[in-house]
């Protein structure tokens, strides 16, 4: 019965003839027979050549329509704004760019720091012998750094004040990306802090980042107060609560994604205005939500959902564990480099913990290339151990 109804609404406005109820007689007019034949032929035709549009299915949610669901795209629930249309066009083109666009691909190491970098000597050990395969950028937001290594001299970009948790943090990240993008040989862009150290040798890091087409952006859904609790309805309609994500700030992105971040103004503006400390009595930190949410919306399969920079939140405090000189042992570094599952915990009362294997091109591998936070006093121990713990 429903087939007939749906069929009538969908195709045959012309054929809304009542079916005769009286018993057929030999004197039935010829046109009824012709009509019935026409109906049969069109039914068979509709079965053999499925229609591309089947509007009746929008009105009948019956199981009749289920087999037809693949025939038409889901109807957009609301018309897109001009800005969304423009943003989709730009993002689509950026994402379809070839993955490596340089003969001599380099990795851009972008340091976001208040001032001097305490581990320049360690980084120098990491970089030496690999000239031409990396470039360094330093955004020093508070004071001019003093350099311990010639590799860092003259690598500062113009900086502005950065306030923890405010949009100025995202602005500094965008400024570093925009500077590093000027060099067309830079193909991968790593954001690092003054307390970050390398966990592997340069070749390992280079092959890990260049050998895959994904960006390492931490991203997970947290229904608790430190996740979706920070979502503001002012972000609607472009950002819905179900799109809202959380993740650590320390990203590593491929060139297409770096371009996309620099080009985005629609979502950036939403977070600038409505994800900030003391927003309607709640605290939202754009550096923890903007990029995870953006990439969850525009290219979810293009990101790994974990960050290659390790940090230890297991003490459950406001700040992660920071390692002193005495903590830095061969065993600690081996422990961190052997982790091959990323860990997330929700901030609601359920405290749901998830461990996800770190899959690199489908193969389970150690998750981390860098680690934080280390006190400057840890430098000597790290220098002493570096060749050992990075041997493989
Ligand atoms: C990356 O994507 C390109 C196509 O865009 C493909 O040719 C290449 O094999 C991919 N590389 C890896 C490591 O998956
Ligand atoms: C990251 O998560 C999204 C959805 O949460 C998923 O679509 C995507 O495949 C994940 N990325 C990888 C590399 O598994
Ligand atoms: C290293 O990991 C082992 C096993 O998980 C643990 O018992 C040990 O305390 C860890 N050592 C350090 C220095 O973190
Ligand atoms: C470095 O590794 C070698 C060989 O595994 C070992 O003999 C040496 O004691 C290690 N050095 C340090 C400082 O751990």
TrEMBL record:
<protein>
    <submittedName>
        <fullName>Glycosyltransferase BC10-like</fullName>
    </submittedName>
</protein>
<dbReference type="Pfam" id="PF02485">
    <property type="entry name" value="Branch"/>
</dbReference>
<dbReference type="GO" id="GO:0016757">
    <property type="term" value="F:glycosyltransferase activity"/>
</dbReference>
<dbReference type="InterPro" id="IPR044174">
    <property type="entry name" value="BC10-like"/>
</dbReference>
<keyword id="KW-0812">Transmembrane</keyword>
<keyword id="KW-1133">Transmembrane helix</keyword>
<dbReference type="InterPro" id="IPR003406">
    <property type="entry name" value="Glyco_trans_14"/>
</dbReference>
<dbReference type="GO" id="GO:0016020">
    <property type="term" value="C:membrane"/>
</dbReference>
<keyword id="KW-0325">Glycoprotein</keyword>
<feature type="transmembrane region" description="Helical">
    <location>
        <begin position="30"/>
        <end position="49"/>
    </location>
</feature>
<keyword id="KW-0808">Transferase</keyword>
<keyword id="KW-0328">Glycosyltransferase</keyword>
<keyword id="KW-0472">Membrane</keyword>
């Amino acid at each position: 019965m429903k087939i007939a109804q749906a069929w009538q609404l969908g195709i045959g406005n012309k054929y809304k003839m009542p079916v005769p109820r009286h018993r057929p007689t030999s004197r039935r007019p010829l046109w009824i027979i012709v009509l019935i034949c026409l109906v049969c032929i069109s039914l068979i035709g509709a079965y053999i050549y499925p229609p591309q549009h089947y509007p009746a299915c929008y009105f009948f949610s019956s199981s009749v329509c289920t087999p037809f669901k693949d025939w038409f795209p889901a109807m957009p629930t609301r018309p897109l704004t001009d800005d969304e249309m423009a943003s989709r066009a730009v993002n689509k083109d950026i994402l379809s760019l070839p993955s490596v666009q340089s003969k001599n691909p380099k990795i851009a190491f972008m340091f976001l720091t208040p001032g001097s970098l305490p581990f320049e000597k360690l980084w120098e050990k990491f970089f030496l012998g690999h000239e031409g395969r990396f470039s360094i950028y330093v955004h020093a937001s508070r004071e001019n750094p003093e350099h311990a290594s010639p590799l860092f001299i003259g690598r500062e970009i113009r900086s502005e004040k950065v306030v923890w948790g405010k949009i100025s943090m995202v602005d500094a990240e965008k400024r570093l990306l925009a500077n590093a993008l000027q060099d067309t040989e830079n193909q991968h862009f790593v954001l690092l802090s003054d307390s970050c150290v390398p966990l592997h040798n340069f070749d390992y890091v280079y092959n890990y980042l260049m050998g895959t087409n994904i960006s390492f952006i931490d991203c997970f859904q947290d229904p608790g107060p430190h996740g979706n609790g920070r979502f503001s309805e002012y972000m609607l309609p472009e950002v819905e609560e179900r799109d809202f994500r959380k993740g650590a700030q320390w990203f590593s992105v491929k060139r297409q994604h770096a371009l996309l971040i620099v080009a985005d103004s629609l979502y950036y503006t939403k977070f600038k205005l409505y994800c900030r400390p003391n927003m309607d009595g709640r605290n939202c930190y754009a550096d923890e939500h903007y990029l995870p949410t953006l990439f969850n919306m525009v290219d979810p399969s293009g990101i790994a959902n974990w960050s290659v920079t390790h940090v230890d939140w297991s003490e459950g405090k406001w700040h992660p564990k920071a390692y002193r000189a005495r903590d830095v042992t061969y065993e600690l570094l081996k422990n961190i480099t052997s982790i091959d599952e990323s860990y997330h915990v929700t901030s609601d009362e359920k405290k749901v913990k998830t461990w996800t294997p770190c899959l690199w091109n489908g193969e389970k591998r150690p998750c981390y290339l860098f680690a934080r936070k280390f006190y400057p006093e840890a430098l000597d121990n790290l220098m002493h151990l570096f060749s050992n713990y990075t041997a493989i």
